[in-house]
Each structure stands twice: as structure tokens, then as C-alpha cells.
Amino acid sequence: MKAGVVGAGLMGAEIALVFALAGHAVLLHDRSAEVLDRAIARLRGVLDKGVARGTYAREAADAALARIGPVTSLDAMCDCAIVTEAVYEALEAKAEVLRALDRICAPSCIFATNTSTLPISTLAAFLTPERRVRFIGTHYFSPVSRMQLVEVISGFATDAAVADQVTALMRDIGKQPVRVRDVAGFAVNRMLHALLIEAVKLVEEGVATPADLDTACRLGLGHPIGPFAMMDVVTSDLCLQVQEILQDAYGERFRPPALLKQRVAAGLGGGRGRPGWIEKETRHEGSAG
């Protein structure tokens, strides 16, 4: 099966990788050749670490990377069986991609979106009615190459057979799918951001430090990573954006804390090359959605 992924950022590139590791040919799209070059280099590093850990054989890793074809034109997606949209978490950015794919791809192509918060039926409105039955949400978690969970979300118009097909495909590429109803934030992010908001409030109130709260969540709740280390991985900027979407959908319970807003405005959002909540030497490798 030929798959396509639009968006060569951290999530999109690794979504392409898991399809390639499962033996599928994959086209990875971005408008910038430079971004694509960086994505392929990053995936090579992910695979090298996997080989060192014994997760992948060297030959399998090299074969997977060879199955990923970087492209700068969406027209290349015309014969893909499934295309996953994994661009910036903004309605207009996703709408632009979906409208373009609708014009380019075959009627049989399945469209999937990796949105973490936007309702699937809202995004489906940017597609022609005939296409909406083959549109679905597949919300992966970071790092995609290591996290098994995928939320599979049907929109109002998604055909049940398509949902079954995509659920089976997620298992085929080594993921554990869970079916979730189409609501803003789906299931995992609603639970996660309730935790993140309360964690930041505890710091605001001087109850405990970010490092100690991370330790408490790992050792007391059995979480593989604490909330502040998680925010440093996915960036506080993205967490703020998600919480604003959730607040719009559900009201005050998801209002972002003032401290989170202040840190984002001050450039303390974490991610590559930026300071975050936790000093880099004390961070723990983990996961987030």
C-alpha cells in the first residue's frame, strides 16, 4: 500500500516512518526541501538509536528509510491509498491542505488527520460531501516511533467500514488503536490537559517545584514522564494552544494558567534549543500527545 503524509515536522515525519517500518511505500510532503532534508536526517537518527537499542536490525532500518520519498508537490499524492494530514494545529492550515488533497487524490483514497484537538466533523466540512465518508481522525502520540497508542475518531459522515479498515491498518503498522467519539480534544488530551493545568497551578501556588511534581507523578502515579518534562518535550506553546481550544469548547475548567501564558510569552516554552520547565540534564525521555 502506498501512503502519504503531509507535514514533515516531528509528528508527520515519524508517522511516515512507522508506515515505512511496516513495509509500506510512503511519500512525505513539505513545501520546503530544506525541511524535508532535516526530517530525513532526524529519522535516520531515530533509526540509528533504535538499532543501538536492538529495536531494529540495521538492514530493516535502512530499508524503511529507503521507502520514504520526500516530495514538495502535493500532486505526488495522487495515487496514495491513504494520506495523513499532519500540519500545524490550526484550522485554516489544515483546511488548505484538505481542500488541495480533495482535488488531487483518487476517490478511493482515505484521508486521515492527526489533529489532537479539532473535531473531525469540523475539518470534514472543508471536503466535498462525497469525500467525507472516507475522512477520519488518527491521533498519534509523540514520539510516534515508540508510542503505541492511536486514537481513531470517526466524524459524523465517516463510513463504518472505513473506520474498521483504518483501525485494522493501525494494528498493521504496530499501533494499538482506541475508538473515540468526535469531540474537541477527544479523550486523552482532555484528561492530559486537566492534569497539566492543575500541575501548573500547584507551581503558581508554591505548593511544589516542577521537578518535584514530575517525581511525584512518576513514582506516585506510575506515569513514565512527569507533566513538566512532558510540556518541555511537546512545548508549552502547543500546550497553551490546545488549552485555548479546549477552553473555547468546554469553558473555564480548561482556562490556561497565567504562569503558562507568561512563560510562553517569555520564550520559555521548551522544545529544541529553548529553555523549559526542567533543566535538560534532569529531563526524562517520555511521551505526549
Task: Note down, in words, how this protein is organized.
With 289 residues, the protein is an alpha/beta fold. It folds into two domains: 2-180, Rossmann fold, CATH 3.40.50.720; 190-282, Orthogonal Bundle (N-(1-d-carboxylethyl)-l-norvaline Dehydrogenase, domain 2), CATH 1.10.1040.10. It has twelve helices and eight strands. It has helices spanning 10-21, 33-53, 58-66, 91-104, 120-124, 129-132, 160-172, 188-204, 210-220, 227-234, 236-250, 258-265, and strands at 2-6, 25-29, 68-71, 82-85, 110-113, 135-140, 149-154, 176-180. Strands 3-2-1-4-5-6-7-8 form an eight-stranded mixed beta sheet, sandwiched between helices. It is globular. The two termini are 26 Å apart. Residues 281-288 have low confidence and may be disordered.
